[in-house]
Amino acid sequence: LVDLSLDLVEAIAEGRTVLVPGNRTARAVRLRYADHARARGHSGWRTPDVLATGAWLERTFLQIRGRQALPRLLGAAHAAALWDAIVARSEAGLRLINAASAARSAASAWALAQAWGIDLARVAADPGDEAQAFTAWVRAFEADCVRQNWIARPRLARYLAQRGRALGVRLYVPDPAELRPDERGLLATLSERGDDVVFGAPRNRAPLAPAPCVVAARDPTDELMRAADWARAQVAAGATAVGVVVTELHRRLGAVERAFADAFAPGTRLVGSAEHLYGVEIAAARPLDEYPLVRAALDVLALVGGRVASPIAGAILRSPFLAGADSEAAARALADVRLRRDGREHFDAVVLERQALANRCDVLAECLQALVSLPHARTHRAPPSVWGEHFLAVWRTLGWPGPRGLTSDERQTIEKLRESLAIFGSLDEVLPALTFDAARAEFARLAATTSFEPRAVGGVVTIIDPQTVVGIEFDALWLAGMTATDWPPPPDPDPFVPIALQVHAGVPQATAAGMQREARRRFDRLVASADRVVASWYRSDGDAEERPSPWIAEWPRGDESQPRGHGYRQTLLAARPVLERVADAASPAVAGEYARGGARIAELQSLCPFRAQAELRLGAHPMAVVAPGVGPLVRGQLAHRVLDDVWRELRSQARLAARTDAALTDEIRAIVARRAQALLAGASGHHVRLVAIESELAQARVLELLRIERMRSPFAVYDRPERSESVRIGGIVIDLRIDRIDELEDGSLVIVDYKTGSSADTNAWYGDRPRQPQMPLYAVVHRDRVAAVAFALLSSARVGFAGTARSAGLLPGVEASMAESRASAADSWDAVLEGWQHAVERLLSGFAAGGSAVDPLPGACRYCHLRILCRIDERAPEAAMVEDDGG
Ligand code: SF4
Predict the structure, then answer these.
(1) What are residue 805's DSSP bridge partners?
(2) How many CB atoms lie within 10 A of CB 370?
(3) To test the ligand 1 pocket, which listed residue (607, 608, 621, 869) has its Cβ within 8 A of the most ligand atoms?
(4) Which phi and psi angles does 472 have, rounded to 5°?
């Protein structure tokens, strides 16, 4: 990937150590040197000594230490654990919500001070809280280092510079501008002392032809598709080193993988067969705990630690990395579905074992049983090395990493995890004896802060971020994400070191001007690092409008034709035979008279006939999601059950009127408490508190509603609350369960439906295709006697009635229905019922006939889970997009 300059080749030939900005650049130089040697007909050559400057510092220190008595090098994990412990036990740390994050920031501020020579005594003189806390932590850290005879990595350059003697090294630094000030200082000092240090200068490549150009994309996805298309074309044209630099690569990693997989290995991401995209290398290390294998290992440790949240229990059930995952895959998937339906928030190993047994996941149940009988002694304290052994035993017990053959990436991931476990085990001298939970949390933190990227065979196309690309050169380069928001980047001063000190030391990220200068230098270097350069930006990202970076705004426009798209879908579509089109918008008619689904039939048939058929006849339901807290469904159930109990007891408004407020309050409190109890199975302490709050709200709202009911004209509950009835309408028989029907003294009926949500739009009852036909359906069923239909609202926004009636005064706040063309309210009421009759009969008869057209009401797709089944996006992608955006 690196086009080697003559100076660099010469330096390598002279046996010099070459210092470059990062490990990836070092690897790129070694690879390109091999190409260079092969091109000159050599069959063997000495591997050039090319190192990232940080790696060279460490190697040099360790070599000297082998000969002399020097401090011990403090590893990165050890240093992080030390910072964590210092911050957590400090006075300032005790007041912090996230002490671990503060510890990371403090470590980075200390490293910054070392690199830029910021005088920590001057930081201590700053009276600000941050500076004072930071100073205390630094003193503790440095004192620990002195006591234990440690030296931390950020101090190495200054330490070696202060030792006062030459090291006997021969160095070549191709790009001195990439050195940190402390590294530059060390090399200058070594040079003065007689070491042989040669500084190169970045090459000026020949003038670019053609000139760089800019491409404007619609959105980030469109931008990546264009970049992938372009990279593929470059490779097809014979380029051997193509770079795609993506700003914010970490955030966009998933989208990058999808776009390049579709362009370079169409179809493979659907079947998961391509471990690496052929010829494409994504140079992005991720935190170790983001790898599924590691996630699974950490999840089972969490289960050993006690209770895990329902999503983690589900992940354990679905994990392919545990014993029996292949033979029990289907049973475990079903167990997961049932677990979601249960709505339980937390699981421990015993409960999960019962779930596994009940769902015929015998292997898993056996493993969980063995896990439960492992000697845990969770309160027992032990050093990290002992807990490391215990973690291994836990993983073995559960058969981790599972029965299937592992890919190369997965083998490397396991290797990295074992390495991390070894590092964890070596923290004995930094950390005190820990409980199991503390050890697990410490190990999880280590995995979260360990960056890892499986080694891959070098690719022709390298996708990389702007920081890591430094020093690498290409035949052709695409710069993605060149928006005005990110280029130039905003200043990012360190929060712990006073800004004035950072400015004085020359830290570029401390000021907008410094940041701009540094970013511009990097940008110019990037643009000069390839023969052909394209920059791109996107016009919008979600709701945010974007503009191009001012640095590319004046560049000539590149090819902005639609990307071809190589995804599986596009490939299949392009290869499709000419098909006969058959419009088939009908399923078989409902057999017999009875249809399951009740009022929901009318509601779904109106929203979208396809959805009604799919959900109610084919059972295409969404997977349940277990969410923390009290969801709308539970809130609704609680209110319904309480009101049901209340009216079963009261039966009439006269008896309600006879109750005193105090008696009513006591009665409701007792009912709410009884009903809420049923919601607490398996609930966490947090959930119990939320249910208690919800119960108080339910009690207050029910009481308020009953006070309003007291003001109504006399009525009695018709039959009983929550009364079920089977009705024939639209040619089918359906079951209805109406919350409550009140019978007035004149024998007319008022239909009441309880609503705890905030959306109670009575306008949605009207029209040829009403969005909410449930209340019209109830009214039509009792058309002869119905005098009013209304929602009884119990939401945070309002408690009361909303609906329509034959005449005013039947329900507080409910007006008589009005139709301008009618002479009286009674005429109008009949007209309303007539319209409802037509609408619900049309909907139900359409359902009975099997009508399943993909014909959604505007906005209906937004909250529908059936997009993949109905393929609305394939039928009218533009329309679907518009609907998505605008609802
Ligand atoms: S996504 Fe839209 S079109 Fe498809 S079934 Fe759902 S509502 Fe109907």
Answers:
(1) 788, 816
(2) 16
(3) 608
(4) -100, 140
Nearest to 501 by CA among 160, 83, 135, 91: 135
Q: Exposed (0-12), middle (13-18) or buried (19+): which is 840, by Cβ within 10 Å?
A: buried
| Ligand 1 binding pocket includes 860 (Cβ within 6 Å) | yes
720-742: pLDDT as tens digits: 888 899 999 999 999 999 999 99
- 396: Cβ contacts below 8 Å, ≥ 6 apart: none
Q: Is the CB of 854 under 6 A from ligand 1?
A: yes
Q: Going from the first residue of the chain to its last (887 residues), give the mean pLDDT of each consecutive group of 10, the final group possibly shorter.
A: 71 93 87 86 91 95 82 91 92 86 95 96 92 95 94 94 87 92 95 92 61 92 93 90 93 90 76 63 89 96 88 93 94 90 81 92 95 76 92 95 88 95 90 90 92 80 87 89 93 94 95 93 88 93 90 88 66 73 81 92 96 94 73 82 94 92 92 82 64 87 94 92 91 95 95 86 91 96 95 91 90 74 66 95 95 93 90 62 39
Is residue 155 lining ligand 1, measured as CB closer than 6 Å?
no
- Cα separation, 777 vs 734, in Å, equals 11
Ligand 1 pocket residue status of 638, Cβ below 6 Å: no
Distance 624 CA to ligand 1 centre (A): 19
Mutate which of 616, 870, 881 for ligand 1 pocket (most atoms within 8 A of beta carbon): 870
The label of the residue with tokens 């200058």 reads 188
Mutate to test the pocket of ligand 1, among 587, 610, 847 (most ligand atoms within 8 A of CB): 610
Instruction: Give CA 33 to chain center in angstroms.
Output: 41
What does the DSSP 8-state code read for residue 95? T
Q: Residue 425 is inside which H or E element, if any? A: helix 408-425
Q: What is the pLDDT of residues 554-609, one digit of tens each?
A: 899 988 776 666 666 666 777 777 777 777 778 899 988 899 999 999 999 999 99
Quick one: which of 104, 131, 109, 185 has its CA closest to 510?
Answer: 109
Centroid of ligand 1 to alpha carbon of 597 (angstroms): 18
The closest of 206, 259, 219 to 566, measured between CA atoms, is: 259
Triad 701, 705, 709: Cα angle to 5°: 165
CA of 609, closest atom in ligand 1: 8
- pTM score, two decimals? 0.71
Neighbours of 203 (CB within 10 A): 17
Q: Tokens for 694?
A: 């919800």
Substitution candidate for ligand 1 out of 611, 868, 871, 882 with most atoms within 8 A of CB: 611
d(CA 887, ligand 1 centre) in Å: 13
CA of 839 to the centre of ligand 1 (A): 21
CB 875 within 8 A of CB 853: no
Ligand 1, atom 5: closest residue by C-alpha: 611
Give the relative orientation of helices 329-342 and 349-358 as an angle to the nearest 10 degrees.
Answer: 120
Taking the C-alpha atoms of residue 289 and residue 202, their distance in angstroms, rounded to an integer, is 38
Give the residue from 75, 246, 67 showing the smallest Cα distance to 167.
67
Contacts of residue 550, defined as CB under 8 A and 6 or more positions apart, other chains included, come to 484
